[in-house]
Amino acid sequence: NNMAEMWTLLNVVDPEGFDSVDAFLEKYGDIKSKEKLDELHETIRPYILRRLKEDVEKSVPPKEETLIEVELTVLQKQYYRALYEKNVQFLHKNKKKALDGPSINNLAMQLRKCCNHPFLLRGVEEEVRNQDKDTKNDGDFLAKASGKLVLLDKLLPKLREGGHRVLIFSQFKIMLDILE
């Protein structure tokens, strides 16, 4: 979004190479010439995931990508099916008004939210918390509701033990709030 955010990402990837936000912003903060832009591109080229043919010829190691398919949790499957079938009785059970439950407008967006985490749907977290009063650990409660978070809960400690760093992106800011 802006140069300060770019520095933050670069600092995560290479803290020694990008140790000063002030120096980075002084050098690239207000790019007005093509030469300055080209210089920035050359600086960040080793960190860009998309590789051009010329990069491969320069013996830059190829990008490695691993796709992991994650199953939805039972809760996610229930809400996904109810949304898909527009089952208003299930979606709005125990709700005083329809506005207190998940919306069935913009179905594709609601299904995407459900696949990320069912608590992104309006009213679902409160309903699950009311059903499961003896929840002790909030982190476990949040992780067990989403297939993606179940995977992250298992994967992140192993990556940390191996000395790896992890950078997580999401199209939903509210998903990052749950991760936090």
UniProtKB/TrEMBL annotation:
InterPro entries: P-loop_NTPase, SNF2-like_sf, SNF2_N. This is SNF2 N-terminal domain-containing protein. Its main location: nucleus. Keywords: Nucleus. The keyword Nucleotide-binding does not apply. It comes from Pseudictyota dubia. GO terms for molecular function: ATP binding. One of its GO terms (cellular component) is nucleus.
